[in-house]
């Protein structure tokens, strides 16, 4: 060992910018946790919207940007997760938080049969196939009379009021139960957002993540060196379905009212999400973070203009795709070279580093 | 008798879906471009026809004839200036750009024409029917189906019997080599999309005359169209007709059992075909 100690190479993914960023991010998350102490109810609701959209966008980015699975049918998992939560609460009489977990599990479960169909389709066919499947799930849910059929239903107010933790939040903040539910949902969304970003980052830095990137860049070459492309893609598809189901269920705990058209809305759960990822930057973890902030800003600025808002969003999306396919973050990182979530392996140490190896 | 009636109605409905799908099949077959805005472009054409009919007092069929070159121009420009930039080995750019376009057209139409349901007035033809033996068949559905068959025949003639069709096939097979032979692929692609929107205009006439429409119904039409194309198999126009008919028949049978099952039955039929023939019933090209 001592023979190579002065000439040791190491593979790293960390950069100075990213190390600094992690400190800032940790502080930001702490402040975000404390947000209910100093933000109004509508502020918390806005943050909840941002965080849930962020998780959905991270999921779609993993799917389309890394695994090459361009799905236009992720609303299937949002809606199915939400319906699973409603079923757990209304039909089984359990806590909505149990329902959120059930939403995730049912989302993952749904991904198995839908994946069976969708994975027979390549590329563009896959996109349309997932959309058809989402429509089938929506139309099927509209047949579920116990949960309101086509018109939908509401969560019983007692169910959310008696939710685990609501009483505690009420006591801490001295607020009504409805606001306490908002705060609780916000915290859960924050945990989910942080957890999903950390999870995706770790996944991309792992062996599986390297395989994923290899498959994306050249499927044939990746398979030649032993990467099981189908298996990795299927795993990503199911994990994303799980997280999407969780988020869907959580969103509807906060909304407390569901209908098939809203829960499976292609605009809300897929179009927005796609624009977030495209505008922010596809194929980078920073992209959806930038994108969701842009979306929120646009929404706030153009709130009074109705359909002009979506029109503008569509045009911006098209322009970004045509002229800056790596999105706003891509433009930034091209100029500065800064990466906050670096996944590229960098070779360090070796001859140009005196007495290297000790700090590895 | 009612089974036969349902079957006939389904086949005729399939004609409408074939019209939705034919333009898509053309573009898809030539440049592997998935146009997610196709349904919204059909709705846009329907509004254009409606505008010509109500604004200028034209006969709907004349209005459609005027709308056709306009839509051809829109299609040509759209492909030449926007979509050609997205073509390449990566399928993401065309998908995302046309998805954005779909949202833009929908909301543009909402802004211009409001969310009200509209219908293209076609006078007494609307409710006319003729008796074929024991079954009464609507004139409009019959016209729709006849137009669908005509469009398929015309597309086949263009594709296999004209020099334009030869250029289509050549660029579809090998864009670079076709370019060496004096074909300008960019222009050929633009013509293909223009032609697709001419077919979309015909579809729009029947869509708008037979049922109410509003700016948001495009994506659902797109899905039916895609199902027809995929069931038929890539590159086969007759396959698209068969695909359209399968969706139409599945929908009318579904509706005859329970009106709420109409759309669901069509989707289920599509998934069943997919299960057994993932490349469709009559695939011509390998992709």
UniProtKB/TrEMBL annotation, chain A:
Primary location group: membrane
Gene Ontology CC annotations of this record: plasma membrane
Cellular compartments annotated: Cell membrane
GO molecular function, one term: branched-chain amino acid transmembrane transporter activity
Pfam families: BPD_transp_2 (PF02653)
Membrane topology, record value: Multi-pass membrane protein
Transmembrane segments: 21-41, 47-69, 76-94, 100-119, 183-204, 234-253, 273-296, 308-329
Keywords on record: Cell membrane, Membrane, Transmembrane, Transmembrane helix
Protein name per its UniProtKB record: Branched-chain amino acid transport system permease protein
Provenance organism: Amaricoccus macauensis
Automatic annotation (TrEMBL), chain B:
Keyword entries, A-Z: Amino-acid transport, Cell membrane, Membrane, Transmembrane, Transmembrane helix, Transport
Highest taxon listed in the record's lineage: Bacteria
GO cellular component term of the entry, any: plasma membrane
GO molecular function: transmembrane transporter activity
Membrane topology, record value: Multi-pass membrane protein
CDD domains with a match to the protein in the record: TM_PBP1_LivH_like
Transmembrane segments: 6-29, 41-58, 64-83, 95-115, 135-159, 188-209, 229-249, 261-278
Organism: Amaricoccus macauensis
Protein's recorded name: Branched-chain amino acid transport system permease protein
